[in-house]
Every structure is written in C-alpha cells, then in structure tokens.
C-alpha cells in the first residue's frame, strides 16, 4: 500500500494538490483513486489557458471499469497539462503522486493559501480508512 504523501493537500473527491512554487499548484488523483478505478486507459484533460474553479470538473479518467470526473481543488488558470498521459495513461496507475500528475493550475495569489482549506495527509487517510 502506498502511503499518503504529507507534502500535499487532498480533496474528498480523491484529488491531490501540490504547491510547485508561489502561484502554481500541480494536481493529480490519489493512489486510492487509481486503485479503485483499476487499469486507466484514457485521460481527458483541459486546455492550457482554461479557467477552472474549485469543485468544477477539469477532465476525466477512464479505466476498464468506469469513467470518473476529475475536479479542480483550487481556482485559477490551467498553465500546463501532462501531455505524456495521452500516450501512456497507465502512468497514473504506476506513479499517481509523481509522473502521473494531470495538470498545473496557476492561482491568483499565494498557492499555499489556495490549498489551505484542503485536507492534510492525515485527514485524507482517515477519510479513505473510513470508506
């Protein structure tokens, strides 16, 4: 079992948010989410420049079992998408907290402030354990 990294924040929808620098937040889905989905075969991501809001869908992850929406944990503008997932969506299964990241979002203001209301690793792990 992969431990929940404590260097990022989490949503109750199983996305993670990692502050990259002052205004950029990298987003992906958690190990719990990829495990529940099973083998990921397709990823649909937003366009760079798209405005996103917290809790709004920013893409889809399709597996052999189902299709799940991915939600933005923070408000801002999509500044990068992980193009490598187009050819290798299974990267999310292999490395959900590293090479399997989905998008980067540039927030207005401080990225740490934008993620402050999200769950910390302990609270997210407690949520997963309770499900």
From TrEMBL:
Location of N6-lipoyllysine modifications: 65
Q: Required cofactors, per record?
A: (R)-lipoate
Q: Does the keyword Protease apply?
A: no
Q: Which PROSITE patterns match?
A: BIOTINYL_LIPOYL, LIPOYL
Which is one Gene Ontology cellular component term of this protein?
glycine cleavage complex
- Biological processes annotated in GO: glycine decarboxylation via glycine cleavage system; protein lipoylation
Per the annotation, how and in what number is the cofactor bound?
Binds 1 lipoyl cofactor covalently.
Alphabetized UniProt keyword annotations: Lipoyl
Respond yes or no to whether keyword DNA-binding is given for this record.
Answer: no
Q: Which residues form the Lipoyl-binding domain?
A: 24-106
A Pfam family reported for this protein in Swiss-Prot or TrEMBL: GCV_H
Q: Which family does it belong to?
A: Belongs to the GcvH family.
State the protein's purpose. Answer: The glycine cleavage system catalyzes the degradation of glycine. The H protein shuttles the methylamine group of glycine from the P protein to the T protein.
Oligomer status and interactors: The glycine cleavage system is composed of four proteins: P, T, L and H.
**Listed name of the protein:** Glycine cleavage system H protein
Gene (UniProt) = gcvH
């Amino acid at each position: 079992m992969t431990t929940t990294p404590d260097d990022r924040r989490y949503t109750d929808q199983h996305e993670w948010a990692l502050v990259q620098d002052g205004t950029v937040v990298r987003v992906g889905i958690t190990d719990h989410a990829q495990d529940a989905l099973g083998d990921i075969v397709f990823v649909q991501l937003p366009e760079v420049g798209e405005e996103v809001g917290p809790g709004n869908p920013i893409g889809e992850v399709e597996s052999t079992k189902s299709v799940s929406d991915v939600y933005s944990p923070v408000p801002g503008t999509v500044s990068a998408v992980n193009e490598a997932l187009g050819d290798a969506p299974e990267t999310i299964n292999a490395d959900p907290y590293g090479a399997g990241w989905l998008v980067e979002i540039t927030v207005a203001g401080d990225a740490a402030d934008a993620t402050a209301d999200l769950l910390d690793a302990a609270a997210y792990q407690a949520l997963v354990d309770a499900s």
